[in-house]
Write a structure and sequence with these properties.
Elements: E1 2-7, E2 12-15, E3 18-20, H1 27-38, E4 42-47, E5 59-62, H2 66-79, E6 83-86, E7 93-95, E8 114-116, H3 120-123, E9 133-140, H4 144-154, E10 159-164, E11 176-183, E12 188-195, H5 196-212
Parallel strand pairs: 1-4, 1-6, 4-5, 6-9, 9-10
Antiparallel strand pairs: 2-3, 7-8, 10-11, 11-12
């Protein structure tokens, strides 16, 4: 099978030296790529800027902005994909315009004019002739189940992996995570705190089962 997996943050430039981004380390997405490779599958890994090494054998594509990630995802899906896992922490907003020169301290105070980025998961176009299993992530700080189930429906996922980002020991930048998976049939499965690679192996197994059942 062919997996397309996104990982890490995106960066949205304000001027030649500054950007808006988030705390994603890429560890969960890279663990998913490693787990899929380990089980003998081909992996296209589309990654934002991170400081961790890519798993050997992944077809790695580096991007910076949300727009670049959207383009890379569509290209890789069009080339052929059985499972698409959108694990990246895409910046939700980008500056309306990019300043050609550095914004000078003396220009301040300044107000940032931000517009939403494209929702990649919700708007990607899927091939008509090939079934693609779609997996999303949901980073929640409140009402985890309700918000995750809403994203599951609105972003057309087969299942969504939700984590509570208010916890310091799991999620962003941590080596461990705790996830609840919500499925289309209304069922859910909780995975208690564990190493990201261990969780990734469980998620990849579920992806394979979904892909085989279609
Ligand atoms: N996502 C995406 N494109 C974006 C923003 C998010 O594809 N521009 C994807 C993420 O990769 C993740 C899912 O959508 O798989 C949910 O992301 P999350 O940050 O939890 O939610 P948002 O859709 O950004 O909504 P909100 O910020 O309101 O929680």
């Amino acid at each position: 099978m062919t997996f397309v997996i996104t990982a890490g943050p995106t960066r949205e430039p304000l001027d030649p030296v500054r950007y808006i981004s988030n705390r994603s380390s890429g560890k969960m997405g890279y663990a998913l790529a490693a787990a899929a490779l380990e089980s003998g599958h081909a992996v296209s890994l589309i990654s934002g800027p991170v400081c961790i090494p890519a798993p050997a054998g992944a077809d790695l594509l580096h991007i910076t902005t949300a727009d670049e990630m959207a383009h890379a995802v569509q290209t890789r899906i069009d080339k052929g994909c059985d499972v698409f896992i959108m694990c990246a922490a895409v910046a939700d907003f980008k500056p309306r315009s990019l300043r050609a020169g550095k914004i000078k301290r003396g220009d301040g105070p300044i107000t940032l004019d931000l517009i939403p980025t494209r929702d990649i998961l919700a708007t990607i176009s899927l091939p008509a002739n090939r079934r693609v299993v779609i997996v999303g992530f949901a980073a929640e700080s409140a009402a985890l189940a309700d918000n995750a189930q809403k994203k599951l429906r609105e972003k057309r996922c087969d299942f969504i992996c939700a984590n509570d980002i208010t916890r310091m020991d799991t999620g962003f930048d941590a080596d461990e995570n705790e996830l609840t998976l919500f499925f289309r049939d209304g069922s859910q499965r909780h995975f208690p705190r564990a190493a990201k690679l261990e969780l990734a192996r469980s998620i990849i197994k579920i992806c394979i089962t979904h892909a085989e059942n279609h």
